[in-house]
Amino acid sequence: MNDRDDPLKKELPDSDYESVPETKSKDSDDSSIERDLPTQIRHRTPFIPSTMEELKALANQMDDMKRQFAEQLRVQNELLQNQSNELFTLKTHAANQPHPSHSQNVAYPMLRMS
């Protein structure tokens, strides 16, 4: 392809054409766009949740998270209480059982042999 065939390199003839400046309405900077839109679309406001609705949704999420956290905390406390009770039981049981010292364990069988 040579330069003559390339449309981007072709020179256009001079023209006296001037574009007419667009008049904008007081209400909008995009009056040309608005003018071309159907009436029902032009006047319809898009659904944008109010800040109050957003805050209510966030508050509900936070309440759910607080409930979940409270449940997890309750379960953890229950597990800790069970472990504490088990340790106390083992300690009490160990204190009530006589445990001979190491010297008694070694010396007693030797005394029986003699």
Notes on the structure:
By secondary structure, this protein is mainly α. Helix content is 61%, strand content 0%. The protein contains 4 helices and no strands. It has helices spanning 31-36, 39-43, 51-96, 102-113. The chain is elongated. The chain starts with 30 loop residues before the first helix and ends with a helix. 0% of the residues are buried.
Write a short abstract of this structure:
With 114 residues, the protein is mainly alpha-helical. The protein contains four helices and no strands.
SS field, number of helical segments: 4
Mean pLDDT: 75
Cα separation of the termini: 119 Å
The helix/strand series, from N terminus to C terminus, equals HHHH
The percent range for strand residues is: under 5%
Q: What is the share of helical residues?
A: 55-70%
Shape, per Cα inertia axes: elongated
Major sheet summary line: none
The structural class is mainly alpha
Number of strands: 0
Radius of gyration: 44 Å
The stretches of 5 or more residues where confidence is low (pLDDT under 50) are none
Region (Disordered): 1-49
Biased composition (Basic and acidic residues): 1-13, 21-37
